[in-house]
UniProtKB/TrEMBL annotation:
Domain (Rhamnogalacturonan lyase) ranges: 394-466, 480-668
Family, per entry: Belongs to the polysaccharide lyase 4 family.
Superkingdom, natural source: Eukaryota
Catalytic activity: Endotype eliminative cleavage of L-alpha-rhamnopyranosyl-(1->4)-alpha-D-galactopyranosyluronic acid bonds of rhamnogalacturonan I domains in ramified hairy regions of pectin leaving L-rhamnopyranose at the reducing end and 4-deoxy-4,5-unsaturated D-galactopyranosyluronic acid at the non-reducing end
Enzyme class label: lyase
Listed name of the protein: rhamnogalacturonan endolyase
InterPro entries: Carb-bd-like_fold, Gal_mutarotase_sf_dom, Galactose-bd-like_sf, GH-type_carb-bd, Polysacch_Lyase_4, RG-lyase_II, RG-lyase_III, Rhamnogal_lyase
Organism annotation: Hibiscus trionum (Flower of an hour)
Organism taxonomic ancestry: Eukaryota, Viridiplantae, Streptophyta, Embryophyta, Tracheophyta
One of the record's GO molecular function terms: carbohydrate binding
Length: 676
């Protein structure tokens, strides 16, 4: 009996072992089907924040990143992350790794070196430092007339560094033009080669030395080079130009670089654009060869000097730029690490946007959420020549900016702006507005012109303003006789040609952002060899037959000549005693002049001229728009004929290939036919 029992026990033991083996095999297979954690988690995420200071250096360490700042200059010398002792370029001088700078008064340049450092907050969870310098008359002409605070914040559990600046001018400070304000980061050249601006703008970048005279050829301007002998042979024959990577304020929330060797990402996260200038559509730089990553706050790019950057003596001013987050992440090199790092950076951006405005900053100049206000309302459109009923302003841009004329927000460069888009029925909610005095502005896709509410809006801490229903009456004198384009403030819907094959940039090698390619202005002279553009209403198609930019014609000896475009159309009836209106909406203008004539191309004087307009350089800088302009031209009926008519648009200036305009939308209206 004892032997039988032992045999039975052994059989049960064998069965149990076999079951355990099968279960183990099942678990191994099951686990193999679970994807590994994509972003490498840091073991030191719960460490407290440590601060060390001495006469030459300041070190802040939270177990995830170790930040080194030169004391007292405030230059960011290093960020240690993972196995990388410094993600910034060690070979550069201390003032050329991570730094603020300002371009002011006739290209004077100031890297905002500070003289003092102050600990604002020091806890286990957060360290905030302020590097400061106060301007005085002994610095006249040497440094930009500003009082400077450069703030740095490191938080527990965040693999990165928050940075913001507080700049102030006293009334007695001298006149100054501050053309550009930014933060620049110079990353390790032998590591960071892959640049990411958006889901569609991503690429391996040339090295800095690839742009020298032995490896490249300068094209029509110094920013653009043709890579003739790059260190990476796959880039040979491509164009590199930093302006090809520009984007609008509203979209410029996240960009950065990836080190493929280490599967490490370096990202600039900008949760809000309230402190940027020129409104949501102002374009600016992101990253470029270096590798260089930029956080742009103020510039004249795509606007020219029409944006307000001049500060007059007697004008006090103070502004907070930022905070922005310098975020680092890592992934397993065995995975699709570029996609993983980019997606994780987008996830972090979402978290930062949900946390805005931050409640951990230590400056009273940066109001927290409870110290801000909200504005709500609904925007409708009334255009009785389209429909009799009021129309919802779908996806309209509505914003608060400094008081001014309708549309003045485009060139407003000193204050704060707060923008949102309406929903499908025109409702809008502008949240977290800093206290101050504002006007409410808007523009509506599909309608020309600018809206402005005819009263000032005062935001006080914690208040909520209900504006109710607002009605926008876009410019309109009569029924539409014909139209070209879509009122969207860009030339994107018009014909954008294929670039010359020798001037390609692979970042835009499909129809996405096709306008970013180099040399498109030259294609006009190739396509219209025998004569200028002629557009026939009812037959032509603006996406195929209307060139995206009205540029000069290139002729022999590298010279240019003015061009005249024609719009041909037929009128079955003409009211000679009535008044017609030509609406000419421009998406961009660069040192250009458009003269308009009706049915008489040989008139001694044009019927209308814009005179010389624009400094935005949108054509040369691969933009599809600059500043928006609208001209409403009243034309007496006797200028028209029953039957065939022609409008002549002459761009009269031809100093170089980039003197041009981009049209947004053109419409001819008949005389008023509505009875009030």
């Amino acid at each position: 009996m004892e032997k039988v029992a032992n045999r039975s026990h052994r059989r049960q033991l064998v069965l149990w072992v076999m079951m355990m083996i099968e279960l183990s095999l099942f678990l191994c297979v099951f686990c193999a089907e679970i994807p590994p954690r994509e972003v490498v988690m840091d073991n030191d995420s719960n460490n407290h924040v440590r601060l060390e200071m001495n006469d030459g250096l300041v070190l802040i360490d939270n177990g995830l990143v170790e930040v080194t700042i030169e004391n007292p200059s405030g230059f960011l010398m290093g960020i240690k992350y993972k196995e990388m002792p410094n993600v910034l370029e060690n070979r550069n001088d201390n003032d050329n790794k991570g730094y603020w700078d300002i371009v002011w008064d006739e290209d004077a340049y100031d890297k905002l070196e500070t003289e003092h450092v102050e600990v604002i907050t020091q806890t286990d969870d957060l360290v905030e430092l302020s590097f400061t310098k106060n301007w005085n008359s002994t610095n006249y002409g040497k440094t930009v007339p500003l009082n400077i605070q450069k703030r740095f914040i490191v938080r527990r559990g965040v693999p990165g560094l928050y940075m913001y600046g507080i700049f102030e001018r006293k009334e007695d400070f001298p006149d100054a033009n501050m053309y550009q304000i930014r933060i620049a980061f110079k990353l390790k050249e032998d590591k960071f080669r892959f640049m990411v601006v958006s889901d569609t703008i991503q690429r391996i970048m040339p090295r800095r030395e690839d742009r020298n005279e032995h490896r490249s050829q300068i094209l029509d301007f110094k920013e653009a080079v043709l890579l003739t002998n790059p260190s990476d042979p796959s880039l040979k024959g491509e164009v590199d130009d930093k302006y090809q990577y520009s984007t609008e304020n509203k979209d410029n929330k996240l960009h950065g670089w990836i080190s493929d060797d280490d599967a490490v990402g370096f990202w600039i996260i900008t949760p809000s654009d309230e402190f940027r200038t020129g409104g949501p559509h102002k374009q600016d730089l992101t990253s470029h060869v270096g590798p260089t990553a930029l956080s742009m706050f103020v510039s004249t790019h795509y606007t020219g000097t029409e944006i307000s950057t001049f500060y007059k003596q007697g004008e006090a001013w103070k502004k907070v730029f930022g905070p922005v987050l310098i975020y680092l992440n890592s992934a397993s090199p065995n995975n699709d690490h570029r996609k993983i790092l980019w997606n994780d950076a987008k996830r972090q951006l979402s978290e930062e946007m949900e946390s805005w405005p931050y409640n951990f900053t230590g400056s009273e100049d940066f109001p927290h959420s409870e110290q801000r206000g909200h504005v709500n309302g609904q925007l409708l459109v009334r255009d009785r020549y389209m429909v009799k009923e009021l129309m919802q302003a779908k996806s309209a841009f509505v914003g608060l900016a400094a008081p001014g004329d309708a549309g003045s927000w485009q060139t407003e460069g000193k204050g704060y702006q707060f923008w949102t888009q309406t929903d499908n029925i025109g409702h809008f909610s502008i949240k977290n507005v800093r206290p101050g005095e504002y006007n409410l502005y808007a523009w509506v896709h599909g309608f020309i012109g600018n809206y402005k509410l005819g009263l000032n809006i005062t935001i006080q801490p914690g208040n909520k303003i209900e504006l109710g229903t607002l009605i926008y009456d876009p410019p309109r004198n009569g029924p539409t006789l014909w139209e070209i384009g879509v009122p969207d403030r860009t030339a994107a819907e018009f014909f954008i040609p294929e670039p010359h094959p020798q001037f390609m940039n692979s970042v835009t090698n499909d129809d996405t952002d096709k306008f970013r390619q180099y040399g498109l202005w030259e294609r006009y002279s190739d396509i219209y060899r025998e004569g200028d553009l002629v557009y026939t209403v009812g037959t032509s198609n603006y996406s195929r037959d209307w060139f995206f930019a009205h540029v000069p014609r290139e002729i022999e000896n590298n010279t240019n000549q003015p061009t005249t475009w024609q719009i041909k159309y037929n009128l079955q009836d003409v009211n000679e005693n009535g008044t017609y209106t030509l609406r000419l909406a421009l998406a961009a203008a660069s040192y250009a002049e458009v003269q308009v004539e009706f049915n008489n191309p040989n008139a001694r004087r044009p019927f209308f001229t814009t005179q010389r307009i624009g400094y935005d350089n949108a054509v040369a800088r691969h933009g599809i728009h600059g500043l928006y302009r609208l001209y409403s031209i009243d034309v007496p009926g006797y200028r028209f004929r029953k039957g065939d008519n022609t409008v002549y648009l002459t761009q009269t200036r031809s100093l170089n290939s980039f003197v041009a305009v981009m049209y947004d939308y053109i419409r001819l209206e008949g005389p008023n036919s509505l009875v009030n």
